[in-house]
Amino acid sequence: MSDATVHAATVLVIDDETQIRRLLRVCLEANGYRVEEAATGQDGIAQAAQRHPDVVILDLGLPDLDGVAVLDRLREWSRVPVVVLSVRDREEDKIAALDHGADDYVTKPFRTGELLARLRVALRHAQPAPEMTVFRNDELEVDLAARVVRLKGREVKLTATEYSLLRLLVQHAGKVLTHRQILREVWGPNAVAQTHYLRVYIAHLREKLETEPARPQLILTEPGVGYRLLEME
Fold first, then answer.
1. Region 104-124: what's the mean pLDDT?
2. Fold for domain 134-229?
């Protein structure tokens, strides 16, 4: 999906900085999006309810409500994709936003190309689609129905835990999954603090699936936050 063929998706920008809203409007409209704006959390929630945007870009440092509170309010009634765009770069802030329902997190200052790519992924995930049974990314193929993984056409043998971890990443391809989310889903709620499990098994997957495990191009690290499986454009 190119930026010019987003079929006029509507983006609601919730940010109190006039210059940022102006920059985003110029960038987004040049790439085929419609843009709505809100300068406060309360106004953003109201506009989301009235205008039903296709995706939301949300700042965390709003004058009336913290962005995480806005996320909580939105998630009470809406599954609209939310991409956080914030100057806050601490891993605790990223984890909190993702755990409270954000679909992605981009820090300021930002590259417009990266933001547009993250928006495309968020919009794809919002589109109703048939249940995915086969995931393909370049030389990797994961057949979820048959529980078979192939790389360059050859079957790759994974342990049960390795497969469960890869399946979770595939089911959320393109999205950042926090350490806690992955540990809870793969190892259970009592393992959410056992990040060493995750590091070991991510390393195992990379050894089996990456051309250069030390320089991964498929299973990407979001430092201090979690992991993301690269999704083909």
1. 92
2. Arc Repressor Mutant, subunit A (1.10.10)
